[in-house]
Amino acid sequence: MTDSDNGLWVRRFHPAPAGARRLVCLPHAGGSASFYFPVSRALSPAVEVLAIQYPGRQDRRQEPCVDNLPELARQVFGVLRPWLDQPLAIFGHSMGATLGFEVARLIEAETGASAAHLFPSGRRAPSCPRHETVHLLDDEGLLADVRRLSGTNSAVLGDPEMLRAALPAIRNDYRAAETYEYTPGPKLGCPVTVFTGDADPKTTVDEARAWERHTTGAFDLQVFPGGHFFLAQHQPAILRTISAALARTPVS
Description:
Elements (H helix, E strand, L loop, with lengths): L2 H7 E2 L9 E6 L10 H7 L3 E6 L16 H12 L7 E6 L1 H17 L5 E5 L17 H11 L4 H4 L2 H19 L13 E6 L7 H5 L9 E6 L10 H13 L5
Parallel strand pairs: 2-3, 2-4, 4-5, 5-6, 6-7
Antiparallel strand pairs: 1-3
Helix pairs in contact: 3-4
Protein name: Oleoyl-ACP hydrolase
GO molecular function: hydrolase activity
InterPro entries: AB_hydrolase_fold, TEII, Thioesterase
């Protein structure tokens, strides 16, 4: 992986001094690294956010999308190798939560060390599959689901040109999330803190609690009022939890 390749994938909006904790942030379906700019700003300088930009969107829109989560996890892990000189914490929302789980598995399998912490948000546990086929709908059907979840900026949904540009990535990511199949394996060794909305149509509280099955480390479940993008209304509380957890993480 060259430095230029790493720069395509990893966005450091607020580079931090030596000694800062590092938090990898993985976007939701159709999302981009810029979604985490406010998170990076809020956590800086104590925590350096490494926001991942998937291929096929924004400044990477000319690159082919990756519609297979295990493959995308392998690519993300490869990009993160230079950052593994100290433990990395991982936050992912929706599709990004499942991707974060697969990246955390690769970290353990390939390095023998655990991620510092895994923070899945707005996603059921990998071992709780659902049969979903939204990615097979026509454009209007797909957009109806996006609007229902209120996950894409309303300015994009109201701008035909921006919408046409975003649709391929949205459909790709829905396909990746909906066709993902959990492969049983060793439990993670890192702590897992799960955030979920009490009215999320994509995840029940019980499905969120099932993340506990996937770790031998400490587990916490935090339930907030709201739907799939509950984190927009509860960002300060979520960031306080993340900051407190990372403050307890040793830095190499």
